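Reopening: NAD-P-binding protein still failing for me.
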Amino acid sequence: MPVSYAVIGASRGIGLEYVRQLAARADAVVFAVVRNKQRSTHLLATIANLNNVHVVEGDVVDYESMKRAAEEVASLNDGKLDYLIHNAAKTDHKTVFLGFYDYPSMDALDVDLMDAFKVNTLGVIHSVTPFVPLLRAGPTKKIVVIGTGGGDPKSVLAVGIKNMLAYCATKAAAVMVATKWALELKDEGFVVVTLTPGLVDTSGTTGDAAAQENMEKAADDFKSVGSRVVLETPESSVRQQLQVIDGLKLEDNGRFLAHNGPSFV
Ligand SMILES: NC(=O)c1ccc[n+]([C@@H]2O[C@H](COP(=O)([O-])OP(=O)(O)OC[C@H]3O[C@@H](n4cnc5c(N)ncnc54)[C@H](OP(=O)(O)O)[C@@H]3O)[C@@H](O)[C@H]2O)c1
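Support: Ran it again with your exact input. Result attached.
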């Protein structure tokens, strides 16, 4: 039986790279969950000659669509799934770097924070819930929620990240959601972790001209406080993330892990 992976938010960036590297494994079947198949042009180009990747539509803000996605995966994979990798996040470079005083009004701040909460925090619940029965039916029972050092108060203080208000606050809440799933599913032998990918230049697939400049500035900010964080390629980050995922053990349940070692910064 092949090892099955669902990557939620697989159209581009880190999620796309997960699909690419997992699909290269001889024994893998990959379910690439995307909001819109036709618009996932980078994904479609990447998997054009692959027969072990299935593209499934699902939007993590829309629970009904995630239920349909899980039903489709179940019908294609004998009701089972080994690994759920929840990668989707609101990363829009027009808003993701905003801090308290960067919004034109409190209403605008409210809207952005609520939108980010729906994708980054509620999205984890919408995506994990319908896949739990499939994971239960398989032997592996691993859930990986992609997090960020920006969701860890100690790292945010160490690097002095004043901006990225909505992103950091809602990704921090997502760590708590993953922690709750870890406790909820512990007695059934699940391992649920949050895993940070490091600082990863995904500008090649964002379609946003400001993205690369923003990522390089972020790398400079880390460097200026003596951090060991460097800007990485999706290939390098995901290769290291998969080493962590391949080595997950029961005692890792509930942990907040980094792709390259024990601390984020
Ligand atoms: N890049 C970094 O340096 C970095 C650092 C720390 C953590 N992370 C984390 O790594 C993960 C991936 O980030 P990335 O840099 O690869 O971002 P990205 O290139 O902007 O990709 C984001 C992905 O999320 C998907 N997505 C957004 N909203 C969605 C929704 N409502 N439903 C389903 N999918 C949705 C996007 O799909 P569409 O194409 O449909 O928009 C896209 O596939 C995120 O969880 C992020 O927080 C990244």
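The first helix runs from residue 13 to 23. If you still see a failure, please send the error message rather than a screenshot.
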